[in-house]
Amino acid sequence: MRFSDIRDIYEHVNDKQIAKWTVAIPHPYKTEDAEEFIRLTNKMIRQNKRRTFGIIYKETDSLVGIIDLFRINWTDRNGEIGYWIGRKFWNRGVATEAIHLILKYAFKELKLHRIYARIFEDNIASARALEKNGFKHEGLQRHAAKVRNRWRNFHLYAILSTEFRIHKR
Ligand SMILES: CC(C)(COP(=O)(O)OP(=O)(O)OC[C@H]1O[C@@H](n2cnc3c(N)ncnc32)[C@H](O)[C@@H]1OP(=O)(O)O)[C@@H](O)C(=O)NCCC(=O)NCCS
């Protein structure tokens, strides 16, 4: 991740609608939070535990979102994805395309076998973007995390490398 993206990250993430649907993003969000995020992420990338990508809008070369492959388990060849897109860019297929690209990278380059995502129960847009990419719903994880002092249920979605090959977009 580039430190030059701090401003864009701050502007998109300092939005209640982003914090509401994510586990670790505080609100209000500060530029220092973006700086810390980049520092920690880059450390984990160096440790081979994570791959994190900025989603760049080509016309302006500005960052409009982030997609992250984390909890990489090299023994069982699986990992979790998480993402956010700045609100101005919602419902244009950006997340759907970013998920497709990170799956391609995870399965073809990293040779992982299973990619999963855990989303809040009522996150319809995120569920839709996963389903459009061939993820299957595996169940509901009850009270899987306490987020902002409230127990939250997560839908668990996953896709296998074999399903990615046959899945048409
Ligand atoms: C979830 C999120 C990443 C989706 O990004 P996006 O770029 O808008 O997603 P896409 O445009 O690729 O796909 C969204 C789909 O959900 C649909 N959708 C959005 N809101 C919806 C709603 N309230 N009800 C039904 N469908 C909805 C869209 O119509 C679209 O489906 P379609 O292509 O079949 O029409 C974005 O809303 C976001 O960043 N939310 C906050 C953070 C978050 O939830 N991150 C995921 C946590 S893991």
Q: Write down the Rg.
A: 16 Å
Shape: globular
Instruction: Assign the structural class, choosing from mainly alpha, mainly beta, alpha/beta, alpha+beta, or little secondary structure.
Output: alpha+beta
Give the strand order of the largest sheet, numbering strands 1, 2, ... along the chain.
Answer: 1-2-3-4-6-5
Order of helices and strands: HHHEEEHEHEEH
Quote the average pLDDT: 95
End-to-end gap: 28 Å
Low-confidence region ranges: none
Question: What percent of residues adopt helix (DSSP H or I)?
Answer: 25-40%
Enumerate how many helices there are, as a single number.
6
CATH superfamily: Gcn5-related N-acetyltransferase (GNAT)
What summary fits the major beta sheet?
Answer: 6 strands, mixed
CATH architecture: 3-Layer(aba) Sandwich
Give the strand tally.
Answer: 6
Question: What is the oligomer described by this structure?
Answer: single chain
Please, could you describe this protein's structure?
- This protein is of the alpha+beta class.
- The chain has one domain: Gcn5-related N-acetyltransferase (GNAT) (Aminopeptidase, 3-Layer(aba) Sandwich).
- Helix content is 35%, strand content 34%.
- The chain contains 6 helices and 6 strands.
- It has a 6-stranded mixed beta sheet, sandwiched between helices.
- The two termini are 28 Å apart.
- Bound molecules: coenzyme A (COA).
